[in-house]
Amino acid sequence: MFLTMRPVPKDKLDVVYRITHHMPDVHGAPIHIGDPATIGIPSLTAEHLGGDVQFQPGDVPVFWCCGVTTMPAVKSAKSSLAFTHSPGCMYVADVMATVPTTTTSSPAETPKVVQISQEPLLYSAASELAADQIQRLEKAVQADPGKRGIGHLHIPGELLRCVLAMSHASSVAVTTGFPCHTELTPPEENDGPPGAVAMAAMLQALGKQVTMVMDASRLQLMRDIVEDCVQAGILKESVAVLPYPPTDGTAPDREVALQFLTHDGDLSRPRYDHLVAIERVGRAADGTYRTMKAKDISSLVGPIDQLFDLANEIPGIKTTGIGDGGNELGMGTVQDKVHQFITNGPDIACTVPADYTITAGVSNWGGWAIAAALYVLRACPIHDRYLRRAVGFPWDPAKLRGAVPSMETEEKVMSIMIKHGLRDGMTAELGLVVDGLQFASEHAQIMKTLRSILGLD
Fold first, then answer.
1. Which of 16, 76, 354, 424 has the smallest C-beta neighbourhood within 10 Å, fewest atoms?
2. How far apart are CA 294 and CA 288, in angstroms?
3. What pLDDT is recorded for position 49?
4. Which residues does 306 contact at the CB level (< 8 Å), separation at least 6?
5. 393 CB burial (10 A radius; 0-12, 13-18, 19+)
6. How many CB atoms lie within 10 A of CB 85?
7. From CA 170, how far away is CA 122, in angstroms rounded?
């Protein structure tokens, strides 16, 4: 594909996108905004057709489809007569194009450009309607029935940025695990794994490769849970569950983490585009791993944090942390607020940051919200076109509805958690209770709200 590039001031991206969005019969809206290397262009100074353009401070490279793309096809057809144009010399006919006299439209037809990354510089797009729905999903899961003060850790707009980045990913690795019941076997709580399964189901439905990463001591537990989810029809296919550190006896260090995250240690060839931690206990300032009551559970926790430490140095990998207390992996982004507003904050706060920090009253709710928001994006024609670079055919969102979290599905998930001995993190009850909240009441109300926002119930 040949592309046309123009530098656009950052504060004009929305305007430019909206104007060109209303002209689909010509170039239409941009198909990429940001770092050219992510679409295979090594440098804007590389060999190109047409004249050079000058960038001013604050300009962002914006790319459109170009009519020159058709020229190789015309040449190969060996037609005796063809009307086309050459780079910089447009072909003008006497047939008038249909151009709207106004660019005002409904929220569903109004594009919104969102920066999702600074390094590399990347933007994405969705409709104002989709952005509003995702904002409402984000707000819904901020409910704090446990009164932990989680609202103080909330970063507005983070869910939209997170799912836009995840939507562009092709391979996602998910980790979870909070072994707070040190006297029980297994020690895992039931907040985290259900949210991980909810995200995995939606990511699979979107055609993405999904991997789960676990401590070696609980590797088989997660593999058994995944297999049961496949048998129950919750996951459409099995998910690879890998141990970190590897079980070959290698001591975990930066090189081991590098080999795990990349092909042959090559930073330009990551195995995963996105790492997600949901209710995964995170490393505190003193190097320990602690519960909300500041109980040290380090002996039961492997150094999966190393993967996030290194991923934060690799531009090709984005990271998300989902938590409900501030001591979870990825919450290092808001550790100062954890110190200030969360009980035992200075002792328990995770110091490892993530690119996107998702807070929720219960971490599982954060997983539900991400799955629901990914559905919203793929049902949005504006985002769908941008995601596929205006190539191919629109995605049918009806194919994804079965992967949207529902009470029926989550009750099946919870029955699998009970089967494998995962208990409520607060009461150690083996049943339909998560974080001290009854599944049929508090959790069901959040689910009802999320699905209502999507217009599914």
1. 76
2. 10
3. 67
4. 244, 252, 253, 254, 256, 257
5. exposed
6. 14
7. 16
Length of the chain measured in residues? 457
Positive/negative CA dihedral, 400, 401, 407, 412: negative
Tell me the C-alpha distance between 315 and 119, whole Å.
6
pLDDT over 70, % of the chain: 97
> For residue 237, which amino acid is it?
E
Q: Alpha-carbon distance 89 to 91, whole Å?
A: 7
Q: In what order do the strands lie in the sheet with 171-177?
A: 240-243, 209-214, 171-177, 274-280, 318-323, 356-359
pLDDT digits (tens, 9 = 90+) for 9-41: 999 999 999 999 988 877 899 999 999 999 988
Please give the average per-residue pLDDT across 70-91, as a whole number: 78
**Secondary structure element (H or E) that encloses residue 117, with its range:** strand 111-117
Q: Model-level pTM?
A: 0.94
* Phi-psi category of residue 35: left, alpha or beta, with phi > 0 → left and psi -120 to 50 → alpha: beta
**Residue located via tokens 């609202």:** 151
Condensed to tens digits (0 to 9), the pLDDT of residues 178-231 reads: 999 999 999 999 999 999 999 999 999 999 999 999 999 999 999 999 999 999
Q: Which amino acid is at 116?
A: I
- Classify each residue of 104-132 as buried b or exposed e, where b means 16 or more C-beta atoms within 10 Å of its C-beta: eeeeebbbbbbbbbeeebbbbbbbbbbbb
